[in-house]
Amino acid sequence: MDRAPSHLRAVILAAGDGGRMRGHTTATPKPLVPLNGRPIVEYTLEALVAGGVTEALVVTGYREAQVRAALAGGHEGLSLTFVTNPRFHAGASYSLAAARPIVGDAPFLLVMADHVLSARLIERLRGAAAADPGRCFVAADSGPRDDAFSDEATKLALGLDGSIIAIGKQLPRWDALDAGAFVLTPAVWDAAATVPEDCELSVIMSELVRRRQLFAADVTGASWYDIDTEEDLQAAAAVVAGR
Known about the structure:
Blueprint: E1 9-14, H1 22-25, E2 34-35, E3 38-39, H2 40-50, E4 55-60, H3 64-71, E5 79-84, H4 93-103, E6 108-112, E7 115-117, H5 119-131, E8 136-141, H6 147-152, E9 155-158, E10 164-168, E11 176-184, H7 187-192, H8 201-210, E12 214-218, E13 224-226, H9 230-241
Parallel strand pairs: 1-4, 1-6, 4-5, 8-12
Antiparallel strand pairs: 2-3, 6-11, 7-13, 8-11, 9-10, 9-11
């Protein structure tokens, strides 16, 4: 039997090599890079717990021994398990695939270890899934953002029914930004089966969009930050300090 949406397990993608932050990640995996004196991934774990999640699967790859050692003691309120993506240098699709044998056909919450999310965002996303448990959702932020942030972010165009009708970084018209957190159902495995095995998550999400199977969970007003570069790290530090 599928898990009820109120008991969603989180899948945390923490396998990448952080190539755009090579000055930090040559010796330290990106999830453990300090943000205001604490590893980035700690903010993810805290948001999950505060947002009502009690169980998480961490997908590791690059310098996974360091990541697992750092998280070996667990996190209060959150039961952690681990799975390895041995092909972490390739597309992030392999990290998603690594989670499949464990999550099976249950819906799950997908987050990135390098996204600083708030509990409010997690609560909103879980709430959307609880209200309509058969759907896949993406955290969609329609609030104002500065141009530099918006230029880098993935954009979403929404249909009248709340479905995502277009997704990408170069959309000429868009309604919200993709905050990088999702609730996914087995529909994601069907979508993944029709795209190249080695691809980025955006390709799989685009296939869900093509099928009209991805919907917006409104997280406007909830704080989040995607850390890709040194500049992002500095900006995220200011966001975290201002909470």
